[in-house]
């Protein structure tokens, strides 16, 4: 719940900042074309804002993935804690923690690759 509230607060600010980064002239242009406020937001403002928000959202996602390992300290089972319980049974801590590190790396690297592809697809000009 704590991570959800934290992520929610950051994502709200990312969303707000993305919308505010779009020039006020875009809203005026949409309204002058006869679009309602909702249509202007949906068809003009948000598509531009989402392109600018993608890097921040992905950054926040990678932070969330990494922050879950800190929660293992207070008793919530996740990847690091599961690794600790496995090497407590067989005393092979180096191999187990190496695998845990590789899982984290693969997860975050995959998210980063997807982000890069999305950013290239939605190039801001």
From TrEMBL:
Ranges annotated as spanning the membrane: 96-114
Coarse class of the protein's main subcellular location: membrane
Compartment(s) of residence: Cell membrane; Membrane
Classification via CDD domains: TM_PBP2
Keyword DNA damage: no
Domain of life (superkingdom): Bacteria
The entry's keywords: Amino-acid transport, Membrane, Transmembrane, Transmembrane helix, Transport
Membrane topology according to the record: Multi-pass membrane protein
PANTHER family reported in the protein's UniProt record: GLUTAMINE TRANSPORT SYSTEM PERMEASE PROTEIN GLNP, MEMBRANE COMPONENT OF AMINO ACID ABC TRANSPORTER
Family designation: Belongs to the binding-protein-dependent transport system permease family. HisMQ subfamily.
Name of the protein: Amino acid ABC transporter permease
Organism: Bacillus salipaludis
